[in-house]
Structure formats: C-alpha cells, structure tokens
From TrEMBL:
Residues 100-215 form the Ig-like domain. The keyword Nuclease does not apply. InterPro entries: C-type_lectin-like/link_sf, CTDL_fold, Hyaluronan_bind_Proteoglycan, Ig-like_dom, Ig-like_dom_sf, Ig-like_fold, Ig_sub, Ig_sub2. It comes from Propithecus coquereli. Residues 1-51 are annotated as: Disordered. GO terms for molecular function: hyaluronic acid binding; structural constituent of synapse-associated extracellular matrix. This is Hyaluronan and proteoglycan link protein 4.
Length: 456
C-alpha cells in the first residue's frame, strides 16, 4: 500500500500536534524507539536521503553521451529537491502498521483533601485514524523519587488490579474509549505527590504526569527533647505520630507565602533542610544576608535552604503537613485545671482522645477553631489556636500558640480532645459533667450529687 503524507513524516514518527500542545503534562517525545537518526538529514537541513554535495565537472572533459546523462541527472535532482522543499513525500507503509500512541494529562495539578475523592485525568489517542483500543495496557505509578516508582494500578483489557494501600480505593473512570483516568477514593496524606499515567500497545507507549495536591496546613515540630534533635527518619516518625507527614518543599514555600515565619531549620520530604522567614531579622538570615543558607523568595524574606543534608547523622526539627479532619477537635475546661494524666482520662470519658498537634493545626486552619485558652495535647505540649487575634491572646497574627512542654504532673491546664466520626456528641448546649471533688473528671463511679457541669 502506498500512502502520501504532506508533512514530511511517517505515521510512527509524528509528534503531538494541535490542541494537545496546551497540556504541559504531555511528553513531547515518545520513547527512544521513535527517535530519528541524525544521519538521516540531508545537507539542506531537511529530513531526506542524506545525499552529499553535488559534484561539478568541466564541460570540456565530457563527451556527448556523458553530457546527456549529466543533464538528465540535473533534472532529476532538481525535481527531488523541489519535492523536498514542498515537504511532500511518498512513503511506503506496511499493511496493519499502527500510528503512535499519545497520552494527554491535565495541566497544572489537581487538588483534594484527606478523605475526599479525586479523579486523576488521563486520556490517550492514536495519531493514525481507525485504530482500536484493544490490547492496550494502562498503568498508573506514583513517583517516589526521580528514579523510584510505586505501582498504583494496572489494567489490561478486563483485568484490573490495584496495589498496596490503593486496593479498594483506586479504579478506572471508564468514560469511553481513550479514557485512562484514575478515580482515587478516601484520599490519604500519603497520596500527595506526582503520578505517571502510562499507556502501552504492542509497539508504542507514552506517559504523562499528574500532580495531586492536598488542601492542608504546614506546621513546624520538635519533640519534648528540644530543638534540633531529629534525624531524617526520626522526623518522619515524629510527623506521623502527630497526624501528619513531612512537608514537601512546595508545601513549605506555599506556607511561607501565606505568612509562615519560623526561625528554626527543619527536614522536608525530599531530605533537604529549610525554614521560612516572612519577617526578616538578623538571627534568621535576614537584613544582611542568609549566611550559609540559600534563599528563595526575596533578598531578606523567603525560604532559607541548607540543601540536602546527611539524613542519618545531622539533626534538625521537622516541618510537617496535615490535611482535613474527618472528626472534630473540641476543648474541655474543668472547674480546676488538671495535670496531663487527668486530661487524658477526661477525653476518654467523652469517647475521644487527646488531640495531636497536627489535629489541632488542622482544626485551626480548616475548621476555624479559635480558643484563647491553653490545653494539653497528646505529645505533652500545651497549645491554643487563634483565628481572630486579640489582646492577651499571644500576638497580632493568627496561628497556634505554644507554651512548650510543661511539667506533666505539676502544671495544670484544660485539654483539647479529638472525637472520630461516629462517636457520640457532647451533651446538648455544649455542657459536659465533671466531678468537682479533688479536681478529677467524670468517668468513674462517683456520687451524681457531687457532679458539677463543665463548660465544653
């Protein structure tokens, strides 16, 4: 079969054109097997036969027959050159040869929150018309590192399979031929990141990238032991224990744009150590230079970057990230403040647990929890959330105020509790019941006559 192509390329060598160019996530080249050899270029710069320069002979050295042959050669060469300049070729195509497969993904990023459902968009088509979608393998992977991938989902015809933590949560959208979009349910913090959608047929494959971002909040963290005590692995565990994950560099930069100011360096997910400064000052690398740290965002204010550090030997704080809460954080205030052990019993009596640091930050940022009273948290720290800054509430900017790690047996506070979905709600009107005698809490076998209402 002989087919004419006017663009100067064979079907298997064409690149993505037209509307698909508006998608930044589309790969411009489709694997090395589609590449052209540089040796295929002619001297005129076009893709051609690779013929060398024309040789010129003196007329006196040629006989009549040689001159006639040379004339025919000149005419033939002129015709070929004109066809080449007109970008029109005659290409022999084998019967049944398919065109290239091209994958298109969404521009930018898609945004969800913990517990939500999101579609990671991905579509594919063939450059040659009338090509079926049978025998196509669809594969989704998560990019963990530049050279490391985690399998998420694979489909080959009617056979579908999800892997690891994605089992029961991932499935194809199936919106007609060419749709490879992945539906992801009950989104978790660990789902944040970049995903690759790969489409493979018998001879060709292509892939596109989709970035899944989460609505949430970045918070700095260090344990009771003090600042700069965490290796990279310990920082990962510390964030997980406080209902979070290590923040990415992009998340920290976005938090800085929102006003996060923290003058202590902390680990990030990629193994780098950075810290955000929105109010430049000398001890934080501002008003005179950033010292040994690089800066992004401005000459004074910005995100200071110490680069990638030795993750097993060097110690810093951590920047954690958390997202929307499925449950609710609330404050319990006793008639008399209690030590940490009493606070834990109080939350348990209410069908709740002492809130973690990440849960308090999420309640402040996403549920607008505002309370000008310090309370115990699960890590033994005492903090309180301020949405509307006011006098005697810790400054003129909103945020979560910290009193550090008070003595768990001698210092007395209220407590912030977290109630998971499905747990019983507090009594109507926001009142709980505590035992006034001895400063304890409800939950034991006490005389009801001695119970006193406590404000929630």
């Amino acid at each position: 079969m002989v087919t004419q192509w006017t663009d100067g390329q064979t079907p298997g060598l064409r690149r993505l054109q037209g509307p698909a160019q508006s998608f930044p996530g589309v790969r411009s080249a489709v694997r090395a097997r589609r590449g052209r050899s540089p040796g295929a270029r002619g001297h005129d710069g076009e893709w051609g036969t690779g013929a060398g320069p024309r040789q010129v002979c003196a007329r006196a050295a040629l006989g009549p027959r040689a001159l006639l042959a040379a004339a025919w050669g000149v005419l033939l060469l002129t015709a070929l050159t004109g066809a080449q300049r007109g970008r029109k070729k005659v290409v022999h195509v084998l019967e049944g040869e398919s065109g290239s497969v091209v994958v298109q993904t969404a521009p930018g990023q898609v945004v969800s929150h913990r517990g939500g459902t999101i579609v990671l968009p991905c579509r594919y088509h063939y450059e040659a018309a009338a090509h079926g979608h049978d025998g196509v393998r669809l594969k989704w992977t998560k990019v963990v590192d530049p050279l490391a991938f985690t399998d998420v989902f694979v489909a080959l015809g009617p056979q579908h399979r999800a892997f690891g933590s994605y089992r029961g949560r991932a499935e194809l959208q199936g919106d007609g031929p060419g749709d490879a979009s992945l539906v992801l349910r009950n989104v978790t913090l660990q789902d944040y990141g970049r995903y690759e959608c790969e489409v493979t047929n018998e001879l060709e494959d292509d892939a596109g990238m989709v970035k899944l971002d989460l609505e949430g909040v970045v918070f700095p963290y260090h344990p009771r032991g003090g600042r700069y005590k965490l290796t990279f692995a310990e920082a990962q565990r510390a964030c997980a224990e406080q209902d979070g994950i290590l923040a990415s560099a992009e998340q920290l930069h976005a938090a800085w744009r929102d006003g996060l100011d923290w003058c202590n360096a902390g680990w990030l997910r990629d193994g780098s150590v950075q810290y955000p400064v929105s109010q430049p000052r000398e001890p934080c690398g501002g008003l005179g230079g950033a010292g040994s740290a690089g800066t992004s965002g401005g000459a004074n204010g910005g995100v200071r970057n110490y680069g990638y550090r030795h993750n097993a030997e060097e110690r810093y704080d951590a920047f954690c990230f958390t997202s929307n809460l499925p449950g609710r954080v609330f404050f319990l205030k006793p008639l008399r403040p209690v030590p940490f052990a009493g606070a834990a019993r109080a939350c348990a009596a209410r069908g709740a647990a002492v809130a973690k640091v990440g849960q308090l930050f999420a309640a402040w940022k996403l549920q607008l929890l505002d309370r000008c009273t310090a309370g115990w948290l699960a890590d033994g720290s005492a903090r309180y959330p301020i949405v509307n800054p006011r006098a005697r509430c810790g400054g003129r900017r909103p945020g979560v105020r910290s009193l550090g790690f008070p003595d768990a047996t001698r210092r007395l506070f209220g407590v912030y509790c977290y109630r998971a979905p499905g747990a019983p709600d507090p009594a109507p009107g926001g009142w709980g019941w505590g035992w006034a005698g001895g400063g304890g809490w409800a939950g034991g076998a006490r005389d009801p006559a001695a119970w006193t209402p406590l404000r929630v």
